[in-house]
Amino acid sequence: MIVLLSVRPGSLESTMTEDLSPAERYAAARRRAVEQATALASFREMYDFGLDPYQIEACEALEGGKGVLVAAPTGSGKTVVGEFAVHLALQQGKKCFYTTPIKALSNQKYSDLCRRYGADKVGLLTGDNSVNSEAPVVVMTTEVLRNMLYAGSQTLLGLGYVVMDEVHYLSDRFRGAVWEEVIIHLPESVTLVSLSATVSNAEEFGDWLDTVRGDTEVIVSEHRPVPLFQHVLAGRRMYDLFEEGEGQKKAVNPDLTRMARMEASRPSYQDRRRGRAMRDADRERERRQRSRVWTPGRPEVIERLDAEGLLPAITFIFSRAACEAAVQQCLYAGLRLNDDESRAKVRELVEERTASIPTEDLHVLGYYEWLEGLERGIAAHHAGMLPTFKEVVEELFVRGLVKAVFATETLALGINMPARSVVLEKLVKWNGEQHADITPGEYTQLTGRAGRRGIDVEGHAVVLWQRGFSPEHLAGLAGTRTYPLRSSFKPSYNMAVNLVEQFGRHRSRELLETSFAQFQADKSVVGISRQVQRNEEGLEGYKESMTCHLGDFDAYMRLRRELKERETELARQGASQRLAEAAVALEKLKPGDVIHVPTGKYAGLALVLDPGLPAGRSNGHRGFEYHDGPRPLVLTSERQVKRLASMDFPVPVEALDRMRIPKSFNPRSPQSRRDLASALRTKAGHIVPDRHRKRRSEAADDREIARLRTAIRAHPCHGCNDREDHARWAERYHRLQRDTTQLERRIEGRTNTIARTFDRIVALLTELDYLRGDEVTEHGKRLARLYGELDLLASECLRAGVWEGLAPAELAACVSALVYESRVADDAMAPKVPSGKAKAALGEMVRIWGRLDALEEDFRITQTEGVGQREPDLGFAWAAHEWASGKGLDEVLREAEMPAGDFVRWCKQVIDVLGQIAAAAPVSGGHGSHGSHGSTVAKNARKAVDGLLRGVVAYSSVG
């Protein structure tokens, strides 16, 4: 163990020097002289604290001309290494780009570097903002650098260093590919500084960087500068998660284990009903336990932390609404964490930061409620908040004027907001598809905020006791450091045309083979090959054990398998036929039909509100279109409005009766649902649906099944006394053979996977005339300027003139469908869209997407691989249209039913894509398919940007 002591010159150092011989003193003086002449020496003088050993090691490697990968815990100061790269660039007269994954981080780093080096030497580029972009040091989001590399920007001239902060973002399945694109395409002369959270495969990532970037030093630090203590808050008491003791292996606190065991043995409600004569002693024991263990309320938690001296604290709640509710609960409980002097400072700073917000918008944004919480030292922090509000919360928290923040996990993504304590309400979160346990990596990232370097002696992670809590599970999360970096790299249409334009098809293919994704895939093949060899040895042994003296047992087993497969196939056909009949019956439904849902969560009486027919089948009704069969929207007798799926109807359904749906019916109104559900029960509650009769099994009359059964009985091995024993070995042989074949396919599939996907993309682009061999056509050059998930759809819409003749607000509505993704499930009503030309254009966009989707299927390009084009989402079209038309914030937010922060974020993304479209669209006055007067799209896209970039969107943040 190395212990570094910080000493004053002339104290311990001089004493040690006196003990040296003249030769040793001379050597030490020479060594100090060499150190003083380095850039690192002058850099260290800029800080009022000593650098950690890993920081010094990384900086020395950087000054020695090597690239570095630094993997260290959150809050350990790894950005110092990035700042040293800035220092080196300025000293050497070169440029340095500092890239971050999110705009908030870019803004924060820009402010930090401006304070250190002056605003004249630092620039900012974040997609929708450009400040001093030709400065020697420029902070930017990673996407901006990627776009500059593809465009061959002049700003890249003189670039010496690139810092990639939070480089572990390349695991992100939506944006991770951008990090790899930058790493692969940066000029060889650029030194790369990669800063990452602690990952378990840093050496593997370093090996890849070494391959694509040259000499790269990997520096890993597991040490937290501020030690972290783990606790569980149950009832009024805070328990340590681990017992105090020596050694690496920590034991779970036996008090927690005992409490969890007692709770697990507590009788359930059903048990109590079953055994009514519950003993008095049992009741008393349960009452005593319940009085000691419960999940404390949010105000109670903050009060407890305040009493223990553990504020400021960040409480992570995996829900925006719950974050806001937590603040209100604390206000209603009368919590006040600030004194009068702090309240005055809060009000002064808030009024200064929000001075540009129009007074009429303050009420809409919930300003006064937000301010009351801030003055008391309490705030929420989540993506649904206005960026200005979030920035104010961050600044007040760092200054110690906000002491309790309720946040979603987005706060853990690198924003500099360290706390003394971090609280986790639950260890389960919604991942977009289901409620899942948080991973050890996520737990480490969240709790990494606890402990402020230079302020706190120790940090604290507090988990609230919940029903079913497992101390062992929490100990596993807290003690595991497995957070592997997995590549999410996939070629895209835009990437393909840019690569082909710069390097040609062959060289592009070779470049993609150098990706981290392919590097990992190639390494994994080695282990799979070894497994195939072991399997083949096992197959030999199984073959020997299944040998029968009466005949060919393998042939006998083939007959048995064929029989089983035939029976399974007939059963599947029968199920498919029943589903098809059910789908036909669903297509006949009309609004107002009373039906009986046969199975599922919503089984019972229901009223059809919208038949939800598939695309192209309207049945005379304007229903929401689905491509996977009818999805009727119904009101159940229990007052729930839900969109059902085909799985809810395993048998055909018929209308039992008809009801009129009032025009005033609002599915979002509880009163409206209650009234209509009551009318439904009155009208049809007494009707008993017909039972569906089971049909005769297809297998009973199948000739092939009869033939196979006869052949099995006639086979010699059928009469063997050891037949079933042989059969067991044969099954094992067959299973292992099937597994081996799958492994061989995996080896084949993992070799050149990225290049094969690229080939399919190139083939599709050639079919659409974006590429002709190594030549990029005019259409392809337009696609090269369009970045985003729906790049090809945007290009095809420009090509087809879909947006010609649209007013700026109508164009904004259409472009919103390229970026917006709804947070709610598809059981809601069809989204409201603008009428007229905008509606027709949106419909045409969906049709073009349908054509592209079919083409992607032909070329085996799938969305599951992260490559294909998703369906455009019309959910933001109305809001974008109304805001671009000049409507007030209150009216737009009320109709959109959307938090201000989400509204601003989507507007900014629409603005970004409108800017791309303005650059890519044919110039007004040109010639071609859009008439003699040329295209109006570019001009109207710029006007749409002006229409959107106003009010709350314009003043929301720096970047």
Q: How many individual β-strands?
A: 24
Q: How many helical stretches?
A: 36
| Poorly predicted runs of 5 or more residues | 1-17, 269-278, 616-625, 925-933
- Termini Cα gap: 44 Å
**How much helical structure, as a percent, in the residues?**
40-55%
Rg measurement, Å:
33 Å
Query: What fraction strand?
Result: 5-15%
Structural class: alpha/beta
- Global outline: globular
> Sheet bearing the most strands, described?
8 strands, mixed
Question: In a nutshell, what does this entry contain?
Answer:
With 959 residues, the protein is an alpha/beta fold. Helix content is 49%, strand content 11%. The protein is built from 36 helices and 24 strands.
Explain the overall architecture.
With 959 residues, this protein is α/β, with parallel strands linked by helices. The protein has an eight-stranded mixed beta sheet with strand order 4-3-5-2-6-7-1-8, with helices on both faces. The protein is globular, with a radius of gyration of 33 Å. The N terminus is likely disordered.
List keywords for this structure.
8-stranded mixed β-sheet; single chain; 49% helix; disordered N terminus; 24 strands; 959 residues; globular; alpha/beta; 11% strand; 36 helices
Secondary structure layout plus pairing:
Blueprint: H1 12-18, H2 22-36, H3 39-44, H4 53-63, E1 67-71, H5 79-92, E2 95-100, H6 103-117, E3 122-125, E4 130-131, E5 137-141, H7 142-151, E6 159-164, H8 176-185, E7 191-196, H9 202-213, E8 216-220, E9 228-234, E10 237-240, H10 254-265, H11 269-274, H12 280-292, H13 298-307, E11 313-316, H14 320-332, H15 340-353, H16 359-362, H17 367-375, E12 378-381, H18 387-399, E13 404-407, E14 421-424, E15 428-430, E16 435-437, H19 440-447, E17 459-464, H20 471-479, H21 493-512, H22 516-545, H23 553-587, E18 593-597, E19 604-610, E20 633-636, E21 641-643, E22 657-658, H24 670-684, H25 703-714, H26 723-750, H27 753-767, E23 771-772, E24 775-776, H28 778-783, H29 791-800, H30 808-819, H31 837-858, H32 877-884, H33 889-896, H34 900-920, H35 937-948, H36 951-954
Parallel strand pairs: 1-7, 1-8, 2-5, 2-6, 3-5, 6-7, 9-17, 11-13, 11-14, 12-13, 14-17
Antiparallel strand pairs: 3-4, 9-10, 15-16, 18-19, 18-22, 19-20, 20-21, 23-24
